[in-house]
Specification:
- There is one protein chain.
- The protein has about 450 residues and is an all-alpha fold.
- The chain has a single domain, classed as Proton glutamate symport protein (Orthogonal Bundle), CATH 1.10.3860.
- It is built from 21 helices and no strands.
């Protein structure tokens, strides 16, 4: 029996190795490139994998957010930590937003669109517009989950029915409830001396264990999720959208590489080792195309494999993954400049700053929205400059399956770097704070 358990452990360990995960992506790309009809039959397997991932995410948030609130309210170093996190968030947002505007402006200046490209874009938009539901994209209320998510003012985030929020994957309302509930639990703990935080820690650990079980299926899930997407999108679209693809995917690659380098420096690890260990959340991000689903694997990788601060990661990652969309900021900024260059629109210094600000603002409007509807907030970035969203949407919706993979990878990478750097600034204080973050049984 012990031998059987040992074999299962070795198999699970092999399936979770970075090389196995990366190999799964290579297999998925190769399968997708064949365009065999059977590749599309893998979609149900991918859907099952995502369902298993999401099964443990919201219970994980319900346990993690109150624990993070307790850490925030009792940790001696949390004021400095929160200041450090705030500065890093602001700095990261400014850098990514400005890079998303300045880089394409410079590239499109030296690589202008020729008449053949413009004609091809016109033909592509004409064909795509017939297949794309613009009304759906402009009206987020048509989304299957939007009926529960949307509201007015505070009503849009207040969880009147926490069970409804859980069943509809409404992460924002779950976060609000977790913060409110965690604050109340800390106050009750101070008053009575009794605590449920030990039970929440057990729930937290149980969710991580569930995710480890599901993670043994990651090679199959990655292949089943990526291959059909690659098969669906032919290579011709990248010839037409080459300018946008070069800039967006190139900038994203630079951000990912820089993020891993900074992560290695902050955690005092070798860059190749950091890249190998961090490839797991990156590949899960590419496969699931869902930032929220990456929370457990990101927390596990940062704490267990990269040895980052437990307190900082558990405090920051669940909230940031749910609210901060660095990949979307980059995507909207590049898209706005791309459409402007396509139509011969020049951008001045004021326009550059405005695009950056609007891209950041629009990224928050994508929270709780999936599919084509997540491109709707881009209209708020384009229309102040007189750029037609009706032109941008048919183009971007074609390439969105792959762009979404990259956006989620950028979200995960940048949001993992921030707590690693923030904790490094408090090297002598963090161990004591982490000890306070673990509740007594």
């Amino acid at each position: 029996m012990a031998k059987s358990g040992s074999i299962a452990t070795k198999i699970a360990r092999w399936l979770n190795q970075p090389l196995t995960v990366v190999g799964s992506v290579v297999v998925a790309l190769a399968l997708g490139a064949t365009h065999w009809p059977v590749v599309d039959e893998l979609r149900p397997i991918g859907d099952i994998y995502i369902g298993l991932l999401q099964m443990s995410v919201l219970p994980f948030l319900l346990a993690t957010i109150p624990l993070a609130v307790r850490s925030l309210m009792t940790g001696a170093t949390n004021r400095n930590l929160m200041q450090s996190l705030a500065v890093l968030i602001l700095g990261s947002t400014v850098v990514i937003a400005l890079a998303g505007v300045l880089a394409p402006i410079a590239i499109f200046h030296f690589m202008p669109f020729d008449h053949d490209t413009i004609a091809a874009v016109g033909a592509l938009v004409g064909g795509a517009a017939g297949n794309a539901d613009l009304t759906f994209a402009l009206d987020a209320g048509n989304d299957v989950n939007a009926g529960y998510v949307l509201g007015s003012g505070l009503q849009s985030i207040i969880p009147a029915n926490i069970f409804g929020a859980l069943s509809s994957n409404d992460t924002m309302r779950v976060l609000v409830f977790g913060a409110f509930f965690g604050t109340a639990m800390v106050m009750c703990e101070r008053k009575s001396g009794r605590s449920l935080f030990g039970a929440l820690r057990s729930l937290h650990d149980a969710c991580l264990l569930m995710f480890q079980w599901v993670n043994t299926l990651s090679p199959i899930g990655i292949i089943a999720l990526i291959a059909p997407q690659i098969s669906k999108i032919g290579p011709s679209v990248y010839v037409v959208l080459a300018h946008f693809s070069y800039v967006f995917f190139g900038l994203s690659a630079v951000i990912l590489v820089v993020s891993i380098v900074i992560l290695a420096i902050a955690l005092r690890l070798d860059i190749p080792l950091t890249f190998a260990r961090f490839s797991k959340p990156m590949m899960v991000a590419a496969a699931t195309r869902n930032t929220i689903a990456c929370i457990p694997v990101a927390v596990e990788t940062m704490i267990e494999e990269l040895r980052a601060s437990r307190q900082t990661c558990e405090l920051y990652i669940p909230v940031s993954f749910s609210t901060l969309r660095f990949g979307t900021i980059l995507h909207f900024a590049v898209a706005a400049v791309f459409v402007g260059a396509l139509l011969g629109r020049d951008f001045g210094l004021g326009d550059i700053l405005l695009i950056a600000v609007l891209s950041v603002t629009a990224s928050f409007a994508t929270l709780g929205i999936n599919g084509a509807a997540a491109l709707a907030p881009l209209a708020g970035v384009l229309r102040p400059f007189g750029l037609p969203y009706e032109l941008a949407f048919p183009l971007l919706v074609i390439i969105d399956p792959l762009a979404l993979m990259v956006r989620v990878m950028v979200n995960v990478a940048v949001n993992c770097v921030i707590p690693a750097v923030a904790a490094r600034r408090l090297p002598e204080e963090m161990p004591e704070a982490e000890a306070q973050a673990v509740p007594a049984e």
